[in-house]
């Protein structure tokens, strides 16, 4: 997409958690669509599938599942992202007969625990957000392992190897600026990027790894402004902002993006994401 085609919604500042959630929904979330589609194809998500999305963000992955006929439940602790997800599923007259998803939708404001009814009803459970800290995700996965039916598929996603992800160069900014506040195991700003990280997380939760895959998810932005805002919306730079200031983080992200800037001003980074399918 050329700079001349950049939508006006990518312009201007959106400070605060609400603005960042909108940047996630409007700029960054779509970068992971190839991951969502690849997993749904492999697991044959469709009519009759009951899917539980852990950390469902602003709901795009759930929306794609409902388009295939699945009934979905999404859990998202970020109230601003959750509000945007609910807005996405709100019927609008212009949608006509497509206003209601085929299987139904439920959106919850927290990650599930052992009492969440959706766990036992689900055929597929997804944890797609590669920025979700393992420490926060682990209790929900343990609840799934304890309550879901035998054979339920649980999908965990993470970054591919840093050498296969152009974004790793930019995410190193987060690690460098966050020191010493950033966690020592952050790893180039990329959580769950090690070779066995996803399998180990699954096993720690009591799940059995049963296959994996890699998916190309290029990050493409119409201009530098939307690239900086999209990357900030992931939450991976929060510790860096706390340790320094927003202006410095913005400046250093922009500098790190220069090698990926094209003649028309657009930004493109080639990335590979990895997923593991585990079973209850």
From TrEMBL:
<keyword id="KW-0489">Methyltransferase</keyword>
<keyword id="KW-0808">Transferase</keyword>
<dbReference type="GO" id="GO:0008168">
    <property type="term" value="F:methyltransferase activity"/>
</dbReference>
<protein>
    <submittedName>
        <fullName>SAM-dependent methyltransferase</fullName>
    </submittedName>
</protein>
<dbReference type="GO" id="GO:0032259">
    <property type="term" value="P:methylation"/>
</dbReference>
<dbReference type="InterPro" id="IPR029063">
    <property type="entry name" value="SAM-dependent_MTases_sf"/>
</dbReference>
